[in-house]
């Protein structure tokens, strides 16, 4: 006798027990349908094949008279015959008379007999089996009838609870590190709570680690995988303790399913954690105070995450910790100030940094930062000119700049905005008190204040009038075309006029836009410069005038080339 879960119609059946096959006298009787012509034929078809326990199954009866479908609404009597089942409706595991019912019933009325009417000559019916059953389905219309016999099989996709308690044979591997987080396979059988009817594991059992001294605690071990047959579970070992494990701890492993529990006593062992880290040496053992150099720390027991700190110096960037825990590759930190003399630094390594199980070791005087007394070198100024009132933001490009720095424009000190080893940004000072009548050029120099080193060279900076032109880009264009160009300088105020002169002929350029330091223009064509014998490149001069103040500045030479065409302004 077999108990199974089932649902019949809208009634939930707690348990079903197949008892015996029905005899013909067991079948309920039903009203006899009205007589029909003897020429009627009935064909019964079971549409659900194969038929599985718990599925809603369907069949149809096709009725024809004289070759034609019977009218809609014609009654057809359907009957079921099969085994009897015990439905434990009271869920008390006691058989009661009212709990003995057929295993297979019609869904519409939960009985074994039902009358359905035809639509387009076909009457349809649905039924359901609570257990595996040998079923006889019949349909009758007057003297016409048909019978089908079939077997309702166990559903291969049904989910059934485990029937056998689990067993544990061994754990593989039986030893793990004291931090947890490793994969371990439990080998046994019946290790799952639910299976398919075909015997495949659907839901694995739960796993618990009962950890002995010195931890004396219980930890759940998450199941990450299970074999199809439920004879292996892969679990992730839990962290036995937030503190370092100072000695080995034995573990009893418990697997629990719906069918029971199994315990493997002392089947696993957490091994004590590694010793604190050790530093043997650094290679190389010295380097630039500017940092950024690769250094390898040799030692033992290094475990990620790792923190490395140089003192003085700061925290180093950890690049690599190879397997084995004997090396750490770092990039040295940058000292905030230049060093006047070689400086020894202690190196501190922290293993398992930030995990709550940090372990630290320090090696004194393990590294030497070499003093660097550099001499500044100037490469370029951008821009290299500005008004006599100053205020121009100037970038100095070079090398060897060590904060803090002093920048001089001639004998006037500039305001330093920012500096690093290769670049200084400053504000050009005013030389207005001297009020030069013509453009004045001064030399720019840089001094590293802490070391007293002054730049080995200087660069010229031009102080000009309130308005001046420093450049035009591009400085060439086609003689027959309106060529775009940008005029650079200082003190431009719209509206402006740009006049271009070639060989005594002056024309006005088209001004597109004006800012304080640049003017966008289109240079006018000079077809007059093209003679009968062709032309050669010709130089032009141009002036810029602020119309509102009548201030004028002359720009550098602009060259017209002999190709291209007139395109219009």
Helix content: under 10%
Total tally of structural domains: 5
> Using DSSP, what is the number of strands?
55
Specify the overall morphology: elongated
The average pLDDT is 87
Structure description:
Helix content is about 0%, strand content about 55%. Strands 37, 39, 40, 43, 44 and 45 form a six-stranded mixed β-sheet that branches. Strands 47, 49, 50, 53, 54 and 55 form a six-stranded mixed β-sheet that branches. Strands 3, 5, 6, 10 and 12 form a five-stranded antiparallel β-sheet that branches. The termini are far apart. The chain has five domains: about 5-155, Immunoglobulins (Immunoglobulin-like, Sandwich), CATH 2.60.40.10; about 160-270, Immunoglobulin-like, CATH 2.60.40.10; about 280-365, Immunoglobulins (Immunoglobulin-like, Sandwich); about 375-465, Sandwich (Immunoglobulin-like); about 470-560, Immunoglobulins (Immunoglobulin-like). By secondary structure, it is mainly beta.
How would you summarize the topology of this molecule?
Layout: E1 3-8, E2 11-21, E3 40-46, E4 51-52, E5 57-65, E6 68-69, E7 75-81, E8 83-87, E9 100-102, E10 104-106, E11 113-117, E12 122-129, E13 133-141, E14 144-153, E15 159-161, E16 167-172, E17 175-177, E18 183-189, E19 192-196, E20 201-204, E21 206-211, E22 217-220, E23 223-226, E24 232-236, E25 249-257, E26 260-271, E27 278-283, E28 286-288, E29 294-300, E30 307-311, E31 314-315, E32 317-320, E33 327-331, E34 343-351, E35 359-370, E36 377-382, E37 385-387, E38 393-399, E39 405-409, E40 412-413, E41 415-420, E42 423-427, E43 440-448, E44 453-454, E45 459-464, E46 468-473, E47 476-478, E48 483-490, E49 496-502, E50 505-508, E51 510-514, E52 518-523, E53 538-546, E54 551-554, E55 558-561
Parallel strand pairs: 4-14, 17-26, 28-35, 37-45, 47-55
Antiparallel strand pairs: 1-2, 2-8, 3-5, 5-6, 5-12, 7-11, 7-13, 8-9, 10-12, 13-14, 15-19, 16-18, 18-24, 19-20, 21-22, 21-25, 23-24, 25-26, 27-29, 29-33, 30-31, 30-34, 32-33, 34-35, 36-38, 38-42, 39-40, 39-43, 41-42, 43-44, 43-45, 46-48, 48-52, 49-50, 49-53, 51-52, 53-54, 53-55
């Amino acid at each position: 006798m077999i108990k199974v879960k089932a649902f019949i119609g809208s009634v939930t059946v707690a348990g079903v027990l197949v008892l015996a096959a029905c005899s013909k006298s067991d079948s309920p009787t039903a009203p006899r349908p009205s007589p029909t012509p003897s020429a009627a034929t009935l064909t019964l078809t079971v549409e659900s094949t194969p038929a599985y326990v718990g599925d809603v199954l369907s069949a149809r009866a096709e009725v024809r008279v004289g070759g034609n479908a019977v009218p809609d609404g014609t009654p057809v009597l359907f009957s079921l015959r099969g085994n009897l089942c015990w439905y434990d409706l009271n869920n008390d595991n006691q058989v009661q008379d009212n709990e003995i019912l057929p295993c297979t019933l019609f869904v519409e009325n939960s009985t074994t007999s039902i009358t359905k009417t035809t639509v387009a000559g076909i009457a349809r019916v649905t039924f359901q089996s609570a257990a595996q059953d040998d079923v006889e389905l019949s349909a009758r219309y007057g003297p016409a009838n048909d019978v089908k016999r079939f077997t309702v099989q166990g559903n291969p996709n049904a989910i059934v609870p485990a029937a056998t308690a689990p067993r544990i044979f061994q754990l593989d591997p039986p030893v793990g590190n004291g931090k947890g987080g490793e994969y371990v396979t439990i080998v046994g059988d019946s290790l799952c709570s639910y299976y398919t009817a075909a015997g495949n594991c659907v839901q694995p059992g739960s796993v618990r680690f009962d950890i002995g001294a010195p931890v004396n605690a219980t930890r759940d071990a998450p199941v990450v995988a299970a074999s199809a047959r439920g004879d292996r579970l892969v679990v992730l070992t839990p962290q036995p303790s937030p503190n370092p494990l100072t000695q080995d701890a034995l573990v009893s492993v418990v697997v629990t399913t719906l069918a029971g529990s199994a315990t493997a006593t002392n089947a696993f062992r957490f091994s004590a954690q590694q010793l604190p880290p050790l530093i043997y040496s650094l290679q190389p053992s010295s380097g630039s105070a500017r940092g950024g150099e690769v250094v390898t720390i040799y030692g033992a027991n290094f475990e990620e995450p790792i923190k490395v700190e140089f003192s003085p110096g700061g925290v180093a960037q950890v690049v690599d910790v190879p397997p084995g825990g004997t090396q750490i590759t770092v990039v040295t930190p940058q000292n905030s100030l230049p060093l006047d003399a070689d400086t020894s630094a202690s190196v501190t390594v922290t293993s398992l940094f930030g995990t709550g199980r940090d372990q630290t070791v320090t090696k004194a005087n393990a590294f030497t930062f070499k003093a660097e007394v550099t001499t500044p070198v100037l490469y370029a100024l951008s821009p290299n000119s500005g008004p006599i009132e100053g205020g121009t933001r100037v970038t100095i490009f070079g090398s060897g700049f060590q904060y803090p720095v002093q920048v001089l424009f001639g004998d006037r000190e500039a305001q330093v905005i920012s500096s690093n080893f290769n670049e200084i940004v400053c504000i050009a000072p005013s030389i207005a008190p001297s009020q030069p009548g013509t453009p004045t050029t001064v030399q720019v120099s840089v001094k590293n204040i802490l070391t007293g080193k002054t730049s080995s060279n200087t660069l010229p900076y031009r102080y000009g009038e309130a308005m001046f032109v420093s450049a035009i880009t591009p400085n060439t264009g086609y003689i027959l075309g309106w060529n775009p160009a940008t005029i650079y300088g200082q003190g431009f105020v719209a509206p402006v006029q740009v006049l271009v002169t070639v060989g005594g002929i002056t024309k006005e350029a088209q001004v597109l836009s004006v800012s304080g330091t640049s003017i966008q223009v289109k240079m006018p064509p000079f077809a007059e410069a093209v003679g009968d014998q062709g032309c050669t490149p010709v130089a032009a001069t141009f002036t810029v005038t602020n119309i509102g103040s009548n201030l004028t500045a002359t720009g550098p030479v602009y060259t017209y080339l002999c190709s291209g065409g007139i395109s219009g302004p």
